[in-house]
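Hi there, hope your week has been kind to you so far. Do you reckon you could talk me through the fold, stretch by stretch? I've dropped the whole record in just underneath, so have a look:
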Amino acid sequence: MTSTQQRKIRQTGCDARFDNLTRQLYATDASIYQIEPIGVAFPKTAEQASLVIRAAADAGVPITPRGAGTSLVGNAIGEGLIVEFSRYNRQITNLDLEKGSVRVGAGVVLDQLNDFLKPHGFCFGPDVATSSRATLGGMIANNSSGARCPIYGTTADHVISLEIVMADGRVEKIGPSHQSLGDQRAKIEKLVRAASAEMAERWPPGLIKRWPGYGIERFLRAPNNLTNILAGSEGTLAAIFSAELKISRLPGEKGLGLIFFQSVAEAMQATVELLDLKPAAIEHIDRPLLDQTKGQLHFQAARDLLELDSKRCESILIVEFYDDAAERLSILQSRKIGLRTKILTSGLVGAQIRSFAFDGLRRRSKTGGVH
């Protein structure tokens, strides 16, 4: 990048770095890939984001919007200018408990949002394994979901409106109540409707989630809502600066059923047998992952409760229920699935196991198990 191009980007007033250390730090994310950018910009406002993106576009420099960099597939790195939205954009505003909504900056971390909502009896439904660092902007861009998607769906299902920065620097607000980008909406609708038959064949009803990508099947159901296209677009269409989100009430009751198996194959088959009970989540843990907890004080209480050392197993399904949990756990136990079953209801022990299963282990594995 020439000194003239750097000067034009700095003249926008946006904090921009072109030193070697910053470029090396942002050459990686949580994936195995490495691509060194020419620089990194840290906008504090939508206006700054607009100016820096416009300046980069005028200079012919590609843009990669970035959140916390938790991507496992390299979509937070690029050879152009990284525009990083997680450093400054962490405001939580406009909480409306009656409407069930809140506005967040793209850099708000999921755990930060849930800590803010919990005293009010609410949460943000999708619960990614990287919740201690994943930003809401990144979750929207990837249409993240998590283990509890049977209950909460994906992030796209919780987006009311978005404030976005287009490739030419325009700042727009999109959503059902906004009439912006009318020409783009009409063109997208025409393209999507032309492919509706193929979409119906490839994405049958009842498919809870799929990998990130343009949400054309969601847009087909709600053609006035461009947030459906942006959610899952991985920053290729626009940069997300802020969002108005739906929030959900915290469940009144929780319960866990732990089923132990002598093989992974048997555990996988059992997930099908459990779907009629409508679990909030089914998490799978296998022997190699369980063995990682040996000798670790943080996990010892959970290991003792699960009797992992005295009653060996190769696989565990951890089945979580919300509301009417006792009745469904009783049905689960009566089915005599696997080697043995352990039932845990709400309380300190259940919370410890829930943390062991849904937080500690899946964060160690980086995969989140089987959802």
